[in-house]
Automatic annotation (TrEMBL):
Belongs to the ATP:guanido phosphotransferase family. Residues 218-303 form the Phosphagen kinase N-terminal domain. CDD domains: arginine_kinase_like. The keyword Nucleotide-binding applies. The keyword Transferase applies. GO terms for cellular component: extracellular space. Keywords: ATP-binding, Kinase, Nucleotide-binding, Transferase. Signal peptide: none annotated. One of its GO terms (biological process) is phosphocreatine biosynthetic process. This is arginine kinase. It comes from Drosophila ananassae (Fruit fly). Residues 147-157 have a biased composition (Low complexity). ATP binds at residues 334-338, 397, 441, 492-496, 521-526. GO terms for molecular function: arginine kinase activity; ATP binding; creatine kinase activity.
Length: 568
């Protein structure tokens, strides 16, 4: 950029000096420029091919050196223009190409057409005649190219090249003019490319913005739902942490891949004010995009797992550690340990298409058909299953049921029963639910309280399935699933336990359960009531601890509850 500025400045200075020179009615020296002063002349005189015999020697003072009668035209006489191709300098001596002067002076009546071209004066004499000294590039024969060689097409005697070229070359002693021009062109080209790139980026940003804009109808529904939730007496974690500031910050955001909105995250809690939590993740990216809402809820539910914490690596520990929590079968009716898993590369329920549901069902069915030994069984698609068989499986707590309003309002039950199914072994002690709440619910269960045997079966099954199906996992949050309560280990170890004395004092039951981070539910699970004093009690924490530690919390808590029930 500096080179361009300097070039412009220098050219302006030269033009001013040339204008002063011509205005003084002095004949212009050919060395000053190789361009005609007046671009109008149609013809340019050509130098004589050879000097006449009667011309004086080259070293003697030439008659033309004496100034001819000064014409007084309105414009100065044209100078000799540069030939289309520079003449090759003679090998013997440098002054040879000088044309011989014509003895006859130019006619005064026709100044635009002088009879003879003026003899090129030596640089030193031309310089002596200049009232204002010009830059070196105009007075020296050499154009200051590297090693004294002509540059940019200049002739060997330095007369070639225009004023601008010689001026710029004279002020770049270490760089040929070609390099300076190339550098300038590269700079201009770079600036142009950067400008074009900025336009492309702006266009792309505009396209992305349009792709990620939240629909006006969605925003309206969000605003309406938030206003109702804020005015309600809901005790959900959603209401607790969805402040107006968080709401305004998140309501226009969408996930990059599946374009899930805040409405997809909180719509179940907006409709069901009696929710305990009230949010779901429509896809794995939602945990990052809507972290301002997920992180405090995760910390609250999972016992202090902060947004700066990192879930430990998977560790099932020694499966032989656990025994039977109720050897006499007085209190524990059944024991179950399950975990949730999401198949890598698929979104969660609200974003799944019917084709994806069917595709996932096919993969699960073919994967489970390869299990052997105690795990060997059969896959039963929900599509086409007889109602009587379906209801019997539900009553036996083997099969999930349709119609959970919390999942329905979260758009987790679309295309039902397409893509759903159940796998169980012959003894019905090992089950896999396909596309209920999560992609996979892997379950080990049996009657009684032999937690050690049940846990061992689950660990074997999980390891076998993971060899065939990659699971969705996050370095910070652990295994990812639809509900934030099932992150990390996703392990839920539970018992159906009958404690009639503690049941009569529900506050005491809740107090002991909280001490061991246990959750008390109804007989048929979340959002149900206890039937005949039978409760579903499980570990609550699933994050910030290993699989083994999560099961041990349940083991220790149930042992304490049975001890307390016996003492009452």
């Amino acid at each position: 950029m500096f080179a361009l500025w300097y070039l412009t400045f220098a050219v302006d200075e030269i033009r001013k000096r040339l204008a002063w020179l011509f205005s003084s009615n002095k004949p212009a020296a050919p060395a000053l420029d190789n361009k005609p002063a007046d671009p109008a002349p149609a013809k340019v005189p050509t130098p004589a091919p050879a000097p006449p015999k009667e011309s004086p020697p080259a070293k003697e003072p030439a008659p033309a050196a004496k100034p001819a009668p000064k014409p007084e035209p309105s414009k100065p006489a044209p100078v000799v223009a540069k030939p289309s191709s520079p003449p090759t300098p003679p090998k013997e001596e440098a002054p040879a190409p000088k044309p011989a002067p014509q003895p006859t002076p130019a006619p005064v009546v026709a100044p635009p057409k002088p009879a003879t071209p003026p003899k090129p004066a030596s640089p030193a004499k031309a310089t002596d005649k200049m009232p204002i000294p010009l830059p070196k590039s105009l007075t020296e024969a050499n154009t200051n190219g590297e090693n004294g060689a002509p540059t940019n097409g200049s002739a060997a005697n330095g007369s070639g090249g225009n004023v601008d070229e010689r001026l710029l070359a004279g002020h770049q002693p270490n760089k040929p003019l070609a390099q300076v021009k190339d550098a300038t062109q590269d700079f201009i080209k770079g600036e142009t490319n950067a400008f074009i790139q900025s336009i492309k980026e702006a266009q792309l940003l505009g396209e992305l913005k349009q792709d990620t804009m939240v629909d006006a109808a969605v925003l309206a529904k969000l605003e309406e739902g938030y206003a109702k939730l804020a005015a309600s007496d809901s005790k959900s974690l959603l209401k607790k942490y969805l402040t107006k500031e968080v709401f305004d910050n998140l309501k226009n955001k969408v996930t990059p891949t599946f374009k899930s909105t805040l409405l997809d995250v909180i719509q179940s809690g907006l409709e069901n004010h009696d929710s305990g939590v009230g949010i779901y993740a429509p896809d794995a990216e939602a945990y990052t995009v809507f972290a301002d809402l997920f992180d405090p809820i995760i910390e609250d539910y999972h016992g202090g797992f902060k947004k700066t914490d990192k879930h430990p690596a998977s560790n099932f520990g020694d499966v032989a550690t656990f025994g039977n929590v109720d050897p006499t079968n007085e209190y524990v009716i059944s024991t179950r340990v399950r975990c949730g898993r999401s198949m890598q590369g698929y979104p969660f329920n609200p974003c799944l298409t019917e084709a994806q549901y069917k595709e996932m069902e096919g993969k699960v069915s073919s994967t489970l058909s390869g299990l052997e030994g105690e795990l060997k069984g059969k896959f039963y698609p929900l599509t086409g299953m007889e109602k009587a068989v379906q209801q019997q499986l539900i009553d036996d707590h083997f099969l999930f049921k349709e119609g959970d309003r919390f999942l329905q309002t979260a758009n987790a039950c679309r295309y039902w029963p397409s893509g759903r199914g159940i796998y169980h072994n012959d003894a019905k002690t090992f089950l896999v639910w396909c596309n209920e709440e999560d992609h996979l619910r892997i379950i080990s269960m049996q009657q009684g309280g032999d937690l050690g045997q049940i846990y061992k079966r689950l660990v074997t099954a999980v390891n076998e399935i993971e060899k065939r199906v990659p699971f969705s996992h996050d370095d910070r949050l652990g295994f990812l699933t639809f509900c934030p309560t099932n992150l990390g280990t996703t392990i839920r170890a539970s018992v159906h336990i009958k404690v009639p004395k503690l049941a009569s004092n529900k506050a005491k039951l809740e107090e002991v359960a909280a001490k061991y981070n246990l959750q008390v539910r109804g007989t048929r699970g979340e959002h149900t009531e206890a039937e005949g004093g039978v409760y579903d009690i499980s570990n609550k924490r699933r994050m910030g601890l290993t699989e083994f530690d999560a099961v041990k919390e349940m083991y220790d808590g149930i042992t304490e509850l049975i001890k307390l029930e016996k003492s009452l």
